[in-house]
Amino acid sequence: MEQRRARPRRTARSGTDEVNAPHLRITWTDEVTGVVGHLVVDRLRRGVASGGVRMRSGCTLQEVTDLARVMSLKEMVVFRPGDRYHPFGGAKGGIDLDPRHPEARNVLKRYFAAMRPLLEHHWATGEDLGVRQATIDGLMAEIGLRSSVEAALAQVPDGADAGLRRLAGAFAVTVDEIGLGDLTGGYGVARAVTTALRHLGERVADTRVVIQGFGSMGGATARYLARHGLRVVGITDADGLVVNPDGLDVETMLRARTVHGGINRDRLSPGDRELPGDAWVDVDADVLVTAAVSWAVHERNHERVRARYVAEAANASVTPGAEAALAGRNVVVLPDFAVNSAANAWWWWTLFGDIAPTAESAFAKIDESMDDLVGRMMRAAAAGGVAPRQAATAIAEANGEAMSAEPPGTEPWPHGARLPGSG
Known about the structure:
Elements: E1 2-4, E2 9-10, E3 17-18, E4 24-29, E5 36-41, E6 49-50, E7 53-56, H1 61-77, E8 89-96, H2 104-114, H3 116-121, E9 123-124, H4 133-142, H5 160-171, E10 174-175, E11 178-179, H6 184-199, E12 208-212, H7 216-227, E13 231-237, E14 240-243, H8 250-255, E15 273-275, E16 287-290, E17 309-312, H9 320-328, E18 332-334, H10 336-339, H11 342-352, H12 359-384, H13 388-404
Helix pairs in contact: 1-13, 2-4, 5-11, 6-7, 6-11, 6-12, 11-12, 12-13
Protein backbone atom coordinates (compact mmCIF):
# COMPACT_ATOMS: atom_id res chain seq x y z
CA MET A 1 0.00 0.00 0.00
CA GLU A 2 1.64 3.20 -1.22
CA GLN A 3 1.10 6.54 0.46
CA ARG A 4 1.52 9.63 -1.69
CA ARG A 5 1.85 13.30 -0.88
CA ALA A 6 0.98 15.80 -3.58
CA ARG A 7 3.20 18.77 -4.40
CA PRO A 8 2.16 22.36 -3.71
CA ARG A 9 0.25 23.95 -6.55
CA ARG A 10 -0.30 27.55 -7.63
CA THR A 11 -3.70 28.88 -6.68
CA ALA A 12 -5.66 31.37 -8.76
CA ARG A 13 -6.76 33.27 -5.69
CA SER A 14 -3.34 34.15 -4.26
CA GLY A 15 -1.09 33.80 -7.29
CA THR A 16 1.56 32.24 -5.05
CA ASP A 17 2.67 28.70 -4.37
CA GLU A 18 0.94 27.30 -1.32
CA VAL A 19 0.16 23.86 -0.04
CA ASN A 20 -3.34 23.11 -1.22
CA ALA A 21 -2.82 19.40 -1.76
CA PRO A 22 -4.76 16.58 -0.09
CA HIS A 23 -3.78 15.68 3.44
CA LEU A 24 -3.23 12.05 2.43
CA ARG A 25 -3.45 9.89 -0.70
CA ILE A 26 -3.21 6.11 -0.55
CA THR A 27 -3.11 3.62 -3.40
CA TRP A 28 -3.84 -0.01 -2.48
CA THR A 29 -3.49 -3.18 -4.54
CA ASP A 30 -5.55 -6.26 -3.70
CA GLU A 31 -3.17 -9.17 -3.13
CA VAL A 32 -5.72 -11.69 -4.48
CA THR A 33 -7.03 -10.08 -7.68
CA GLY A 34 -4.61 -7.24 -8.39
CA VAL A 35 -7.50 -4.75 -8.31
CA VAL A 36 -6.39 -1.22 -7.39
CA GLY A 37 -8.17 1.02 -4.90
CA HIS A 38 -7.56 4.52 -3.57
CA LEU A 39 -8.31 6.62 -0.53
CA VAL A 40 -7.84 10.38 -0.50
CA VAL A 41 -8.24 12.46 2.66
CA ASP A 42 -8.52 16.03 1.42
CA ARG A 43 -8.45 17.51 4.90
CA LEU A 44 -9.22 16.67 8.51
CA ARG A 45 -11.39 18.66 10.89
CA ARG A 46 -11.40 17.63 14.52
CA GLY A 47 -9.31 14.67 13.32
CA VAL A 48 -12.01 13.26 11.03
CA ALA A 49 -12.83 13.31 7.31
CA SER A 50 -16.13 12.23 5.77
CA GLY A 51 -16.80 10.72 2.36
CA GLY A 52 -18.21 7.63 0.67
CA VAL A 53 -16.52 4.80 -1.19
CA ARG A 54 -17.33 4.06 -4.82
CA MET A 55 -16.63 1.09 -7.08
CA ARG A 56 -16.55 1.32 -10.84
CA SER A 57 -14.40 0.07 -13.65
CA GLY A 58 -11.93 2.80 -14.56
CA CYS A 59 -11.92 4.60 -11.20
CA THR A 60 -8.67 6.59 -10.91
CA LEU A 61 -6.66 8.31 -8.21
CA GLN A 62 -7.32 11.68 -9.85
CA GLU A 63 -11.07 11.03 -9.80
CA VAL A 64 -10.96 10.14 -6.12
CA THR A 65 -8.82 13.20 -5.38
CA ASP A 66 -11.31 15.49 -7.11
CA LEU A 67 -14.20 13.89 -5.24
CA ALA A 68 -12.45 14.26 -1.89
CA ARG A 69 -12.09 17.98 -2.53
CA VAL A 70 -15.80 18.15 -3.34
CA MET A 71 -16.52 16.41 -0.03
CA SER A 72 -14.60 19.09 1.90
CA LEU A 73 -16.76 21.74 0.27
CA LYS A 74 -19.91 19.68 0.82
CA GLU A 75 -19.15 19.39 4.52
CA MET A 76 -18.38 23.08 4.98
CA VAL A 77 -21.25 24.46 2.93
CA VAL A 78 -23.92 23.09 5.31
CA PHE A 79 -22.33 24.53 8.48
CA ARG A 80 -24.79 26.21 10.81
CA PRO A 81 -23.48 27.56 14.14
CA GLY A 82 -26.63 26.46 15.95
CA ASP A 83 -26.35 22.81 14.90
CA ARG A 84 -24.89 20.19 17.21
CA TYR A 85 -23.03 18.76 14.25
CA HIS A 86 -20.05 20.82 13.11
CA PRO A 87 -18.67 19.57 9.78
CA PHE A 88 -15.68 17.31 9.36
CA GLY A 89 -13.11 17.35 6.56
CA GLY A 90 -13.59 15.65 3.21
CA ALA A 91 -12.41 12.27 1.92
CA LYS A 92 -13.30 9.70 -0.72
CA GLY A 93 -12.55 6.06 -1.42
CA GLY A 94 -12.60 4.41 -4.83
CA ILE A 95 -11.98 0.95 -6.28
CA ASP A 96 -11.30 0.25 -9.95
CA LEU A 97 -13.70 -2.68 -10.43
CA ASP A 98 -17.13 -3.28 -11.92
CA PRO A 99 -19.44 -3.65 -8.89
CA ARG A 100 -21.19 -6.55 -10.66
CA HIS A 101 -17.95 -8.57 -10.70
CA PRO A 102 -18.34 -11.82 -8.70
CA GLU A 103 -15.34 -10.86 -6.51
CA ALA A 104 -16.60 -7.31 -5.81
CA ARG A 105 -17.73 -7.94 -2.23
CA ASN A 106 -14.55 -9.77 -1.28
CA VAL A 107 -12.38 -7.05 -2.80
CA LEU A 108 -14.32 -4.41 -0.88
CA LYS A 109 -13.85 -6.37 2.35
CA ARG A 110 -10.10 -6.61 1.86
CA TYR A 111 -9.97 -2.90 1.01
CA PHE A 112 -11.78 -2.04 4.24
CA ALA A 113 -9.52 -4.36 6.23
CA ALA A 114 -6.48 -2.56 4.82
CA MET A 115 -8.00 0.84 5.65
CA ARG A 116 -9.19 -0.22 9.11
CA PRO A 117 -6.82 2.05 11.12
CA LEU A 118 -8.18 5.05 9.23
CA LEU A 119 -11.77 3.81 9.50
CA GLU A 120 -11.39 3.49 13.25
CA HIS A 121 -9.97 6.93 13.86
CA HIS A 122 -10.11 9.30 10.88
CA TRP A 123 -12.34 8.25 7.94
CA ALA A 124 -16.13 8.09 8.24
CA THR A 125 -17.59 6.56 5.08
CA GLY A 126 -20.79 5.37 3.45
CA GLU A 127 -22.26 4.28 0.15
CA ASP A 128 -21.41 5.85 -3.19
CA LEU A 129 -21.60 4.85 -6.83
CA GLY A 130 -21.64 1.04 -7.15
CA VAL A 131 -21.63 0.34 -3.40
CA ARG A 132 -24.72 -0.11 -1.24
CA GLN A 133 -24.87 0.90 2.42
CA ALA A 134 -26.25 -2.49 3.40
CA THR A 135 -23.13 -4.12 1.94
CA ILE A 136 -20.88 -1.71 3.81
CA ASP A 137 -22.73 -2.33 7.08
CA GLY A 138 -22.30 -6.08 6.73
CA LEU A 139 -18.58 -5.76 5.97
CA MET A 140 -17.99 -3.40 8.90
CA ALA A 141 -19.43 -6.04 11.22
CA GLU A 142 -17.22 -8.70 9.64
CA ILE A 143 -14.02 -6.71 10.24
CA GLY A 144 -15.06 -5.85 13.79
CA LEU A 145 -16.30 -2.25 13.56
CA ARG A 146 -19.63 -1.01 14.87
CA SER A 147 -20.32 1.33 11.97
CA SER A 148 -18.87 2.84 8.82
CA VAL A 149 -18.84 6.15 10.75
CA GLU A 150 -16.80 4.66 13.60
CA ALA A 151 -14.30 7.53 13.40
CA ALA A 152 -17.01 10.07 14.30
CA LEU A 153 -18.65 8.22 17.17
CA ALA A 154 -16.39 9.56 19.93
CA GLN A 155 -17.66 13.07 19.15
CA VAL A 156 -21.40 12.35 19.47
CA PRO A 157 -22.42 14.48 22.46
CA ASP A 158 -24.75 11.97 24.13
CA GLY A 159 -22.59 8.98 23.28
CA ALA A 160 -22.00 6.54 20.45
CA ASP A 161 -24.79 4.16 21.43
CA ALA A 162 -27.43 6.89 21.36
CA GLY A 163 -26.19 8.14 17.99
CA LEU A 164 -26.15 4.66 16.48
CA ARG A 165 -29.69 4.03 17.75
CA ARG A 166 -30.84 7.17 15.96
CA LEU A 167 -29.15 6.08 12.73
CA ALA A 168 -30.62 2.57 12.96
CA GLY A 169 -34.06 4.04 13.56
CA ALA A 170 -33.74 6.41 10.62
CA PHE A 171 -32.55 3.69 8.24
CA ALA A 172 -35.54 1.55 9.25
CA VAL A 173 -37.97 4.23 8.03
CA THR A 174 -39.59 3.77 4.62
CA VAL A 175 -41.56 6.33 2.64
CA ASP A 176 -43.83 4.91 -0.05
CA GLU A 177 -41.84 1.64 -0.21
CA ILE A 178 -38.37 3.25 -0.37
CA GLY A 179 -36.00 3.55 2.57
CA LEU A 180 -35.39 7.01 3.96
CA GLY A 181 -31.63 6.60 3.48
CA ASP A 182 -32.19 6.24 -0.27
CA LEU A 183 -34.43 9.31 -0.45
CA THR A 184 -32.73 12.15 1.40
CA GLY A 185 -30.14 12.94 -1.29
CA GLY A 186 -32.65 13.12 -4.14
CA TYR A 187 -35.20 14.90 -1.98
CA GLY A 188 -32.56 17.59 -1.38
CA VAL A 189 -31.67 17.84 -5.08
CA ALA A 190 -35.33 18.32 -5.97
CA ARG A 191 -35.70 21.03 -3.33
CA ALA A 192 -32.51 22.73 -4.54
CA VAL A 193 -33.67 22.71 -8.18
CA THR A 194 -37.09 24.15 -7.42
CA THR A 195 -35.63 26.79 -5.09
CA ALA A 196 -33.12 27.85 -7.75
CA LEU A 197 -35.81 28.02 -10.44
CA ARG A 198 -37.96 30.26 -8.27
CA HIS A 199 -35.02 32.58 -7.55
CA LEU A 200 -34.45 32.86 -11.29
CA GLY A 201 -38.08 33.73 -11.90
CA GLU A 202 -38.89 30.47 -13.66
CA ARG A 203 -42.24 28.70 -13.55
CA VAL A 204 -41.75 25.42 -11.68
CA ALA A 205 -44.95 23.64 -12.64
CA ASP A 206 -44.61 21.51 -15.79
CA THR A 207 -40.92 22.37 -16.23
CA ARG A 208 -39.40 19.53 -18.27
CA VAL A 209 -36.54 17.55 -16.76
CA VAL A 210 -34.32 14.69 -17.91
CA ILE A 211 -32.41 12.63 -15.33
CA GLN A 212 -29.21 10.77 -16.13
CA GLY A 213 -29.19 7.84 -13.68
CA PHE A 214 -31.87 5.91 -11.82
CA GLY A 215 -30.07 4.69 -8.68
CA SER A 216 -30.86 5.96 -5.21
CA MET A 217 -29.99 9.59 -6.08
CA GLY A 218 -31.57 9.66 -9.54
CA GLY A 219 -34.66 7.75 -8.51
CA ALA A 220 -35.40 9.94 -5.49
CA THR A 221 -34.73 13.09 -7.50
CA ALA A 222 -37.21 11.92 -10.12
CA ARG A 223 -39.84 11.17 -7.47
CA TYR A 224 -39.65 14.52 -5.73
CA LEU A 225 -39.28 16.65 -8.84
CA ALA A 226 -42.45 14.99 -10.14
CA ARG A 227 -44.17 15.68 -6.82
CA HIS A 228 -43.11 19.33 -7.09
CA GLY A 229 -44.99 19.44 -10.40
CA LEU A 230 -42.11 19.14 -12.86
CA ARG A 231 -42.54 16.86 -15.86
CA VAL A 232 -39.91 14.10 -15.98
CA VAL A 233 -39.55 13.46 -19.73
CA GLY A 234 -36.47 11.22 -19.70
CA ILE A 235 -34.57 8.84 -17.38
CA THR A 236 -31.48 6.76 -18.14
CA ASP A 237 -29.96 3.63 -16.70
CA ALA A 238 -26.93 1.57 -17.76
CA ASP A 239 -28.85 0.15 -20.73
CA GLY A 240 -30.13 3.33 -22.30
CA LEU A 241 -32.66 6.16 -22.17
CA VAL A 242 -36.42 6.05 -21.75
CA VAL A 243 -38.34 9.15 -22.87
CA ASN A 244 -41.89 10.38 -23.00
CA PRO A 245 -42.57 14.05 -23.83
CA ASP A 246 -45.85 13.85 -21.93
CA GLY A 247 -44.04 12.70 -18.79
CA LEU A 248 -42.90 9.33 -17.44
CA ASP A 249 -44.79 7.43 -14.76
CA VAL A 250 -42.03 7.79 -12.16
CA GLU A 251 -43.72 5.87 -9.35
CA THR A 252 -44.40 2.83 -11.53
CA MET A 253 -40.80 2.88 -12.72
CA LEU A 254 -39.54 3.10 -9.13
CA ARG A 255 -41.64 0.13 -8.02
CA ALA A 256 -40.17 -1.95 -10.86
CA ARG A 257 -36.58 -0.68 -10.51
CA THR A 258 -33.82 -3.29 -10.14
CA VAL A 259 -31.38 -3.38 -7.22
CA HIS A 260 -28.68 -1.80 -9.40
CA GLY A 261 -30.91 1.09 -10.51
CA GLY A 262 -32.11 -0.52 -13.73
CA ILE A 263 -35.34 0.37 -15.51
CA ASN A 264 -37.67 -2.59 -16.05
CA ARG A 265 -38.53 -2.32 -19.75
CA ASP A 266 -41.45 -4.71 -19.31
CA ARG A 267 -43.23 -2.12 -17.15
CA LEU A 268 -43.03 0.88 -19.46
CA SER A 269 -46.13 2.87 -20.41
CA PRO A 270 -47.52 2.85 -23.98
CA GLY A 271 -46.11 6.30 -24.80
CA ASP A 272 -42.59 5.58 -23.55
CA ARG A 273 -39.75 5.18 -26.08
CA GLU A 274 -36.30 3.66 -25.72
CA LEU A 275 -33.24 5.46 -27.10
CA PRO A 276 -29.48 4.82 -26.94
CA GLY A 277 -27.76 5.55 -23.65
CA ASP A 278 -25.93 8.74 -24.63
CA ALA A 279 -29.08 10.34 -26.07
CA TRP A 280 -29.84 11.93 -22.66
CA VAL A 281 -27.57 14.83 -23.61
CA ASP A 282 -29.84 15.74 -26.55
CA VAL A 283 -33.23 15.54 -24.81
CA ASP A 284 -35.32 18.67 -25.26
CA ALA A 285 -35.78 19.59 -21.59
CA ASP A 286 -35.45 22.66 -19.38
CA VAL A 287 -33.42 20.94 -16.65
CA LEU A 288 -30.78 18.22 -16.92
CA VAL A 289 -30.00 16.34 -13.71
CA THR A 290 -26.73 14.37 -13.81
CA ALA A 291 -27.18 11.59 -11.25
CA ALA A 292 -24.80 8.83 -12.32
CA VAL A 293 -21.07 9.08 -13.00
CA SER A 294 -18.43 11.78 -12.66
CA TRP A 295 -17.53 13.91 -15.71
CA ALA A 296 -20.71 12.96 -17.55
CA VAL A 297 -20.84 16.36 -19.28
CA HIS A 298 -17.44 17.02 -20.81
CA GLU A 299 -15.56 18.74 -23.61
CA ARG A 300 -16.82 16.31 -26.26
CA ASN A 301 -20.55 16.46 -25.53
CA HIS A 302 -21.40 19.77 -23.85
CA GLU A 303 -22.47 21.31 -27.17
CA ARG A 304 -25.30 18.78 -27.32
CA VAL A 305 -26.85 19.90 -24.02
CA ARG A 306 -30.20 21.52 -24.75
CA ALA A 307 -31.29 22.19 -21.18
CA ARG A 308 -30.99 25.69 -19.73
CA TYR A 309 -30.14 24.37 -16.27
CA VAL A 310 -27.87 21.51 -15.21
CA ALA A 311 -28.08 20.18 -11.64
CA GLU A 312 -25.18 18.02 -10.47
CA ALA A 313 -26.83 15.32 -8.40
CA ALA A 314 -23.70 13.21 -8.99
CA ASN A 315 -20.40 14.52 -7.68
CA ALA A 316 -18.07 16.20 -10.19
CA SER A 317 -20.38 15.37 -13.09
CA VAL A 318 -19.53 18.42 -15.24
CA THR A 319 -15.90 19.07 -16.20
CA PRO A 320 -14.56 22.60 -15.61
CA GLY A 321 -14.09 23.13 -19.35
CA ALA A 322 -17.62 22.03 -20.13
CA GLU A 323 -19.01 24.23 -17.37
CA ALA A 324 -17.20 27.27 -18.77
CA ALA A 325 -18.54 26.52 -22.24
CA LEU A 326 -22.08 26.08 -20.92
CA ALA A 327 -21.83 29.40 -19.09
CA GLY A 328 -20.94 31.00 -22.41
CA ARG A 329 -24.32 29.79 -23.67
CA ASN A 330 -26.06 31.06 -20.51
CA VAL A 331 -26.65 27.53 -19.23
CA VAL A 332 -26.70 27.62 -15.42
CA VAL A 333 -24.88 24.79 -13.62
CA LEU A 334 -26.02 24.14 -10.03
CA PRO A 335 -22.91 22.70 -8.32
CA ASP A 336 -22.75 19.24 -6.80
CA PHE A 337 -21.50 20.06 -3.31
CA ALA A 338 -24.45 22.41 -2.77
CA VAL A 339 -27.41 20.71 -4.45
CA ASN A 340 -26.59 17.11 -3.46
CA SER A 341 -25.40 17.84 0.08
CA ALA A 342 -28.53 16.59 1.86
CA ALA A 343 -27.67 12.87 1.94
CA ASN A 344 -24.35 13.47 3.66
CA ALA A 345 -25.75 16.08 6.03
CA TRP A 346 -28.72 13.87 6.96
CA TRP A 347 -26.36 11.21 8.30
CA TRP A 348 -24.69 13.73 10.59
CA TRP A 349 -27.83 15.58 11.63
CA THR A 350 -29.27 12.23 12.67
CA LEU A 351 -26.16 10.86 14.40
CA PHE A 352 -25.56 14.06 16.36
CA GLY A 353 -29.22 14.59 17.25
CA ASP A 354 -30.06 17.71 15.28
CA ILE A 355 -33.09 15.84 13.92
CA ALA A 356 -35.21 12.94 15.09
CA PRO A 357 -34.97 9.63 13.15
CA THR A 358 -38.16 10.29 11.18
CA ALA A 359 -38.99 11.25 7.61
CA GLU A 360 -40.87 14.33 8.79
CA SER A 361 -37.91 15.66 10.75
CA ALA A 362 -35.44 14.85 7.96
CA PHE A 363 -37.49 16.48 5.20
CA ALA A 364 -38.17 19.59 7.28
CA LYS A 365 -34.46 20.05 8.00
CA ILE A 366 -33.56 19.48 4.33
CA ASP A 367 -36.19 22.01 3.22
CA GLU A 368 -34.83 24.60 5.63
CA SER A 369 -31.20 23.92 4.73
CA MET A 370 -31.69 23.90 0.96
CA ASP A 371 -33.92 26.98 0.90
CA ASP A 372 -31.30 28.88 2.87
CA LEU A 373 -28.21 27.59 1.06
CA VAL A 374 -29.53 27.76 -2.50
CA GLY A 375 -31.15 31.12 -1.83
CA ARG A 376 -27.85 32.55 -0.57
CA MET A 377 -25.97 30.96 -3.48
CA MET A 378 -28.26 32.37 -6.15
CA ARG A 379 -28.39 35.84 -4.58
CA ALA A 380 -24.58 35.96 -4.28
CA ALA A 381 -24.15 34.74 -7.85
CA ALA A 382 -26.48 37.45 -9.16
CA ALA A 383 -24.96 40.20 -7.03
CA GLY A 384 -21.38 39.31 -7.94
CA GLY A 385 -21.96 38.40 -11.56
CA VAL A 386 -20.41 34.97 -10.96
CA ALA A 387 -21.45 31.38 -11.50
CA PRO A 388 -23.34 29.54 -8.74
CA ARG A 389 -20.28 27.33 -8.16
CA GLN A 390 -18.12 30.34 -7.32
CA ALA A 391 -20.78 31.71 -5.02
CA ALA A 392 -21.23 28.38 -3.24
CA THR A 393 -17.46 27.92 -2.91
CA ALA A 394 -17.21 31.32 -1.24
CA ILE A 395 -19.97 30.33 1.19
CA ALA A 396 -18.18 27.07 2.01
CA GLU A 397 -14.82 28.74 2.50
CA ALA A 398 -16.33 31.42 4.73
CA ASN A 399 -17.92 28.68 6.80
CA GLY A 400 -14.57 26.91 7.02
CA GLU A 401 -12.90 30.09 8.26
CA ALA A 402 -15.64 30.55 10.85
CA MET A 403 -15.09 27.00 12.12
CA SER A 404 -11.31 27.47 12.16
CA ALA A 405 -11.70 30.62 14.24
CA GLU A 406 -13.26 28.68 17.12
CA PRO A 407 -10.95 28.41 20.14
CA PRO A 408 -9.22 25.01 20.47
CA GLY A 409 -11.33 22.56 22.41
CA THR A 410 -14.53 24.53 21.96
CA GLU A 411 -17.57 22.26 21.82
CA PRO A 412 -20.69 23.47 19.97
CA TRP A 413 -22.94 21.59 22.42
CA PRO A 414 -23.14 21.06 26.17
CA HIS A 415 -21.68 17.68 27.10
CA GLY A 416 -24.35 15.21 28.08
CA ALA A 417 -27.25 17.32 26.82
CA ARG A 418 -30.44 15.45 26.05
CA LEU A 419 -31.05 15.44 22.30
CA PRO A 420 -34.20 15.11 20.18
CA GLY A 421 -35.00 11.49 19.51
CA SER A 422 -32.36 10.19 21.93
CA GLY A 423 -34.90 8.12 23.81
